[in-house]
Write a structure and sequence with these properties.
With about 900 residues, the chain is an alpha/beta fold. It contains 28 helices and 38 strands.
């Protein structure tokens, strides 16, 4: 990139994490333009120290006094019983002068737009935004910035910018540039929820991606040597790509790390601040390369699992996940070559080491599901050996190195000198920013001297004016002039103000005592200080004044945003009282607010999702049963990867079921994957199960549509948006909901507008990373991998022995499914009593015989011919691994 190109590119904002006061101050001291942080609720890093809601005014006043913006993360799904509390947090954020909210939940975004319309919204990476359609959806919800999915490359970002320009939509884009990478798409990971009822969409990620897994290929254990962390990506470091990111028009560069300590925040923020500063043409110096290398070392030692550019330079599955470790490491040292007498360890390394440095060696465990044996210690002595080798002696004390052998890998984990430097950087004070004043000075003989400020950048109010108590008099010596007035009125040391310009409208030859000038200066400073305190500081323009104006009460905002009709109320929004609406939206009890709907009113309907033509054929061959009997299948959805089979599926199922044969597509659509929707359109099914913004745009005008779980419908406000904005027939309830929360959602939505999944193998990780390519080929992406996904059956075995099936989709994305199916069989009576009538059963690897048997059992349970408990027991008998209730545990049942 030329200097001219770099000069033309606007400088992106540097956005740093703040999991605590100490980290916040470290970020600001080391060059952050903005910080993002959460409070004790509604944020995706609940394990961080976090702030408290009561801290918000102090946090924002401190930041604004230093010219730094503060963004509050509210980047989780919000459940029905939490909408009132979430609304109160929005109001508190607005009062405190928060610069923007980072949001995931669509219902919360809608509430913010109505309740706090002056509070900027940023669409979180948890929104899974991977295309221009996703950006447009966020814009439709009122977002003024979006955080793109980490899985996008620089080329993808360029495509999105071009597509947004073609739409006439200007939207600032934010991109992660450093820190931990999730292997799954943010907002689409259900692993923690499925395995431990700890939802990643609620800030409770259990980091199952950092655990070891064993690869089973066609039923045979595959020996991968040192590779056992098959789902643990290296950390992201885009420091070398800053010029390209700036040239791509990225508005904000985001550093991950609210769980990291202040020294990490300081070191990483400093490195990226320096990197951005070097984008200035005058900073392109030959000697910069040496310093750049040192900064990269700082990044590795601050915290890293190995550093790479993630997906920004394109897909390289083998590079993304090395699989050898998942903990903090540091710069690579090399491999052990020999052990000598006296405890000396010999290795070849390009790094300089010194006594006091921390190192760690690894020895492989014989158990492929156990972590490697670690031998970590301080370097006590270093000796040079021939051919560039070093000999190290570790301590203090005797270090057991018996497990180590030739080839054991080693890393540098700490440098005490650098650690001290990072600590000093983290503890630096940051002075309050002095605000510039453009002062007007005027008067005439016999009148007071007037000082006037029309406005001060970042300060609400104005103008401000003071007048001298004494009148101006003819001077007997040198009169007041610009130089003398600037010297006297500019004495603002120790204040928040700085005289930048003095505009003089004063005849020459006039005089006022110095004491009077000093008094005028003090009075003006007092006025400005009062305005600053009242307005919340620079950057907090008229927040208090705005908040004082008439605004919509929270209860009324919730009432206006609820669905047009709810199962517990009347058929129209207008005839529902705000009290009843609030009781539905705020309910989190295990029983719904609405009265039970008689079973005779509407018979339950079962939809089956199939993943193969063989499963579809098995359903076609089921005996035809009258719909009135309650044993009839209502609809089939085909989720089939091969485009050529879609028309076959439609032909097989056309006219077979009352609800028709529907199709569904991939959960993710990237900016160059519009083609993936064409086979769905050409097949002309009876309807579509839609999973993302691109499908909402393209498919809803063509046929009836239902929203899938990937839309993350967790509260009635979100449901209403999809139902009313996109005209969906119904939406699938989020898989993050426990049974009581699910029933509260049902109570707050129109009758018949929700579909609930009764049986499924929960999709755990949905990821751009392809394990087939990474571990079953020598290629780096779909162009040279040889498509092992088409020739092999792969499962991942976890530490408990459960084997989880792995599938690849049309775009080479992988989904790891839970080896244990989840069933809500025992909850069927509660669900029916709550008014639910639309249910789904999702198949995975079921044989044709199992398909017919399982569908028959669920139809019998819905018709009341067998109990939910009997169905549960039969599922336990039929499944090799058994089944789980997951979060859908009915009252009195054990997980």
């Amino acid at each position: 990139m030329s200097d001219d190109d770099m000069a033309a590119a606007p400088r992106p904002e540097l956005l740093s994490p703040a999991g605590s006061w100490e980290s916040l101050k470290a970020a600001v001291a080391n060059g952050a333009d903005a910080v993002y942080f959460g409070v004790e609720a509604f944020n995706a890093r609940l394990r961080a120290e976090n702030f408290r809601r009561r801290d918000l005014p102090d946090v924002m006043a401190w930041l604004h006094a230093r010219g730094v913006k503060g963004f509050l993360t509210v980047n989780v799904l919000v459940f029905p019983g939490e909408l009132v509390e979430a609304g109160e947090l929005l109001l508190a954020a607005e009062r405190a002068g928060v610069d923007a909210l980072i949001v995931q939940d669509i219902g919360l975004a809608r509430l913010a737009g109505l309740l706090t319309p002056d509070l900027a919204l940023h669409g979180s990476t948890q929104m899974s935004i991977t295309s221009a359609a996703g950006v447009a959806q966020a814009a439709d919800l009122g977002c003024e910035r979006v955080v793109l999915a980490r899985e996008l490359s620089l080329r993808d970002i360029g495509r999105i910018q071009a597509q947004l320009q073609a739409r006439g939509l200007g939207m600032p884009l934010e991109v992660f540039v450093h820190g931990a990478l999730c292997v799954a798409y943010s907002g689409q990971c259900l692993t923690s929820e499925a395995l431990g009822q700890r939802s990643a969409n609620r800030g409770e990620c259990a980091q199952a991606c950092r655990l070891p897994y064993q690869l089973i290929v066609d039923g045979v254990e595959r020996d991968l040597g040192e590779q056992r962390y098959l789902l643990s990506p290296q950390d992201l470091a885009a420091w070398d790509l800053l010029p390209q990111l700036a040239a791509a028009g990225v508005a904000s560069l985001k550093i991950e790390g609210r769980l990291k300590d202040p020294t990490y925040v300081a070191a990483v923020t400093d490195a990226y601040r320096q990197g951005l500063d070097r984008l200035e043409p005058q900073a392109q110096r030959p000697e910069a390369e040496t310093a750049a290398g040192e900064l990269r070392r700082h990044l590795e030692l601050s915290f890293s699992r190995g550093l790479g550019t993630g997906w920004l330079e394109g897909v390289n599955h083998r590079r993304l996940v090395q699989g050898r470790w998942s903990k903090k490491r540091g710069p690579w040292l090399g491999r052990l070559e020999a052990q000598e007498r006296g405890g000396w360890l010999v290795l070849a390394t390009a790094l300089a080491l010194k006594p006091g440095d921390g190192v760690v060696f690894e020895a492989p465990s014989r158990d492929p599901l156990a972590p490697p044996i670690e031998v970590g210690a301080r370097v006590m002595a270093v000796e040079r050996r021939p051919a560039g080798r070093l000999a190290l002696r570790l301590g203090p004390g005797r270090i057991d190195t018996a497990a180590l052998g030739p080839g054991s890998p080693a890393w540098l984990t700490s440098d005490p000198q650098l650690d001290k430097r990072f600590a000093r950087m983290a503890q630096q004070d940051t002075a309050e920013r002095r605000l510039p004043l453009r002062l007007q000075v005027g008067g005439r003989a016999g009148e007071p001297l007037r000082l006037r400020l029309e406005q001060v950048p970042g300060l609400a109010g104005g103008p401000w004016q003071v007048e001298s108590a004494a009148a101006l008099q003819p001077a007997t010596g040198a009169g007041l002039d610009a130089e003398r007035l600037t010297a006297q009125l500019g004495r603002l040391g120790g204040t928040r103000w700085q005289l930048m310009h003095l505009e003089l409208a004063l005849p020459p030859g006039l005089f006022l005592p110095v004491a009077q000038l000093n008094q005028l200066r003090r009075e003006l400073v007092e006025q400005l200080d009062r305005a600053l305190a009242a307005g919340g500081g620079p950057g907090h323009d008229a927040v208090e004044a705005e908040f004082g104006r008439a605004r919509l009460p929270l209860a009324e905002a919730l009432r206006q945003l609820q669905p047009v009709s709810v199962s517990g109320g009347s058929d129209s929004r207008g005839s529902n009282s705000s009290g009843s609406a609030l009781s539905v939206l705020a309910s989190s009890a295990g029983s719904p607010v609405s009265p039970p709907i008689p079973l005779s009113q509407t018979e339950p309907q079962l939809t089956v999702l199939v993943r193969s033509l063989e499963q579809l054929q098995a359903l076609v061959e089921l005996p035809e049963v009258p719909a009135a009997s309650g044993s009839a299948l209502h609809r089939v959805v085909a989720d089939i990867e091969h485009p050529a089979q879609l028309r076959q599926a439609v032909a097989l199922g056309r006219g077979r079921w009352p609800g028709g044969l529907w199709l569904t597509g991939p959960r993710i659509v990237r900016p160059d994957e519009a083609w993936s929707l064409e086979p769905l359109l050409r097949a002309e099914p009876d309807g579509y199960l839609v999973r993302n913004a691109d499908q909402l745009e393209r498919l809803t005008p063509q046929a009836p549509c239902i929203g899938d779980f990937s839309l993350n419908v967790a509260n009635p406000l979100t449901a209403a948006w999809f139902l009313e904005r996109w005209g969906l027939e119904r939406v699938t309830a989020s898989y993050d909901l426990a049974l009581d929360q699910l029933l509260a959602l049902v109570a707050g939505c129109p009758t018949g507008s929700l579909e609930l999944t009764l049986h499924q193998h929960m999709p755990l990780f949905h990821m751009e990373h392809c394990l087939f390519c990474a571990f079953l080929s020598n290629g780096h992406d779909h162009t040279d991998c040889g498509r092992p996904c088409e020739h092999h059956t792969v499962v991942l075995r976890d530490r408990s022995g459960v084997e989880h099936p792995l599938k690849a989709d049309l775009g080479c994305r992988n989904t790891l499914f839970n080896g244990k199916a989840q069933t809500a069989a025992e909850a069927i009576p509660q669900l029916l009593r709550s008014g639910v009538r639309h249910f789904r059963l999702e198949l995975l690897d079921d044989t044709p015989a199992d398909t017919g048997c399982r569908v028959g059992l669920y139809l019998d349970a819905l018709a009341g011919r067998i109990s939910g408990r009997q169905l549960w027991q039969q599922e336990q008998l039929d499944s090799r691994l058994g089944v789980t209730r997951g979060s859908l545990r009915p009252d009195g049942a054990l997980r």
